[in-house]
Amino acid sequence: MAELTERPFPPGDYPLIVVGSGPGGLQVSSALRGHGIDHAVLSADMQPAGMFRRWPFFQRLLSWTKPFAPVARGTRPYERYDWNSLIPETDEHRAVMVGLMDGTSYFPSRPEMQAGLEAFVSRTGLRVRFGCRWTGTRRLDDGRFELQTSDGTYTAGTLVFAVGVAEPWRPTSPGMELAAHYADTRPVEQYADRRIFIIGKQNSGFELASGMLPWAKRIVIASPSPAKLSVNTHSLVGIRARYVQPYEDHVLGGGVAILDAAIERIERGDADGAPFRVVTRRSLDSVEMVFDADDVIAATGFVAPLLDLPDLGVATFGQSRLPAQTPYWESATVPGIFFAGTIGQGSAGLKKHGIPSNSGAVQGARYNARVLARHIATTRFARADERPAVARDQVVDFVLDELTLGPELWHQRAYLARVLSLDPTEGIRDDGIVPLAWFVDAGGPDAIAATLETDGTGAVYPVVYLRRDGTVTEHPIEAHPLLDYRTASARSDLAGILAPMLGRA
Ligand SMILES: Cc1cc2nc3c(=O)[nH]c(=O)nc-3n(C[C@H](O)[C@H](O)[C@H](O)COP(=O)(O)OP(=O)(O)OC[C@H]3O[C@@H](n4cnc5c(N)ncnc54)[C@H](O)[C@@H]3O)c2cc1C
């Protein structure tokens, strides 16, 4: 009973409301608190950790936390090696995950990830109203928003939705309703000695196949296009190399078939035979292939549970129904509504060389959330922005340090940038971490933006963007094999690039 009466954030009016208690909601709440922004956090869940309370089912996470690294544990540079801890506002709560992993792998298990997120909440004292489901939304005459929830009505001028992209989605092919979704997967021993047909060649399909390999009689994994590996796309959107054991079984004929084929329909099987028949058409030659299966699983993806936000005018796009967003993760069509967590993928950034950001995973989304909190604090709550002065003779070393050690540039390549502005009246100021797409498109005073980029060949190299008299130019610096740019050659390259700017400031 005590817990019920102590639930924070009862229905009422708040300056800002965050919805969701997954990594996205927790990270943005922590950062908002760091900026002193009063806000409520509501979640349908009964405890923190969001999707990681349930998924991934069988396999360890895709994202690593390396206990031993070339830099000291628990420092900002260490975040390059710890992809899974949320970022606190005080140093003592950094790198929470490391102490909770049992050392058998540097990829945390799902329960370890859940424990890490729970520990972050209890150690930092974050507060969430659990068991409170948002059910509807209305725009009030004064421009504020009303949220209807299972606990009553809330109002706020600013909303941050961190509701994830975890609502099961399946295509409309005939008979698809006969397939179970990834979300309905049963305990693995229930797949013993069965013929399993998995639709979808993304991480979730391969994760299931890997987990079922010791149990299944046969596994077929099918979708029209060939699988993409994450090592080639330099992000987690392709299949993580750790999940590709089914490929080996496929190549060696170990009871796994990986098929490029469209699913034409799923039918119930004969009373005496397999429960399901899956009719496919091969992408290569349009030949029909039919498979008997005991289980058909649609690992066909997820959508964002936006409820009635589209009716309010929030534009969405693509199969995941992601909201269209500005570079600062604000709805492109309804100002005042922002997004955090994996849903922030809807702000695609520049996608240089076609490579997406890591906003769909914790290691990218956690920085977006911190940049978002600062943006909201300064633009909607008139908080003073801290922009420390940087001495002219320190600029080159400052930029090279960030390129070598800064975790934001490392995890969000060509997406987030470190910006220094050069206003003649203010001198040189550190504007902090800024979305690169905003820097490039929004205009503004003369400024330098430094980021890391990758072009798909394996190279990771710095790129410096200069904005001079409103025109943006781009200047790559040669890649260093150990990614250490505090070298005489990088210093000389950067000094040459910056000379025309620094001469003016
Ligand atoms: C199968 C799978 C495996 C993945 N593996 C990894 C991985 O290994 N590493 C990684 O970094 N990322 C992984 N991801 C991506 C992952 O989704 C994100 O990194 C992260 O969990 C998303 O956090 P989030 O806070 O945005 O959303 P979620 O964790 O999904 O949290 C959403 C929150 O919103 C709440 N909510 C939703 N609707 C409502 C409502 N109407 N009212 C109130 N509350 C609501 C939920 O209760 C929940 O608390 C994986 C995704 C999937 C689908």
Largest sheet: 7 strands, mixed
Distance between the termini: 62 Å
Bound ligand species: flavin-adenine dinucleotide
Strand content: 15-25%
Question: What is the number of helices?
Answer: 12
- The general outline is globular
CATH fold-level assignment of the largest domain: FAD/NAD(P)-binding domain
Number of structurally distinct domains? 3
Question: SSE layout and pairings?
Answer:
Blueprint: H1 2-5, E1 13-19, H2 23-34, E2 40-42, H3 110-124, E3 134-139, E4 145-149, E5 152-161, E6 167-168, E7 180-181, E8 195-199, H4 203-212, E9 218-223, H5 230-233, H6 245-251, E10 256-268, E11 276-282, E12 288-293, E13 295-298, E14 302-303, H7 309-312, E15 316-317, E16 322-323, E17 337-339, H8 362-380, H9 395-405, H10 407-411, E18 416-423, E19 427-435, H11 436-442, E20 447-454, E21 460-468, E22 471-476, H12 488-504
Parallel strand pairs: 1-2, 1-5, 5-17, 7-13, 8-9, 8-13, 9-10
Antiparallel strand pairs: 3-4, 4-5, 6-14, 10-11, 11-12, 15-16, 18-19, 18-20, 20-21, 21-22
Bound molecules: flavin-adenine dinucleotide (FAD).
Flavin-adenine dinucleotide binds at residues 19-25, 42-45, 50-52, 55-56, 61-63, 133-134, 162-164, 166, 204, 302, 305, 341-343, 360-362.
Q: What's the gist of this structure?
A:
This protein has 505 residues and is an alpha/beta fold. The chain contains 12 helices and 22 strands.
Provide a descriptive summary of the structure in words.
This protein is of the alpha/beta class and 505 residues long. The protein has 3 domains: 9-166 and 303-380, FAD/NAD(P)-binding domain; 170-300, FAD/NAD(P)-binding domain, CATH 3.50.50; 392-504, no CATH class. Helix content is 23%, strand content 25%. The protein has 12 helices and 22 strands. The protein has helices at residues 2-5, 23-34, 110-124, 203-212, 230-233, 245-251, 309-312, 362-380, 395-405, 407-411, 436-442, 488-504, and strands at 13-19, 40-42, 134-139, 145-149, 152-161, 167-168, 180-181, 195-199, 218-223, 256-268, 276-282, 288-293, 295-298, 302-303, 316-317, 322-323, 337-339, 416-423, 427-435, 447-454, 460-468, 471-476. The protein has a 7-stranded mixed sheet with strand order 7-13-8-9-10-11-12. Strands 1, 2, 3, 4, 5 and 17 form a 6-stranded mixed sheet that branches. Strands 19-18-20-21-22 form a 5-stranded antiparallel sheet. A hairpin with a 4-residue loop joins strand 15 (316-317) and strand 16 (322-323). The model has no long low-confidence stretch (mean pLDDT 93). The structure holds flavin-adenine dinucleotide (FAD).
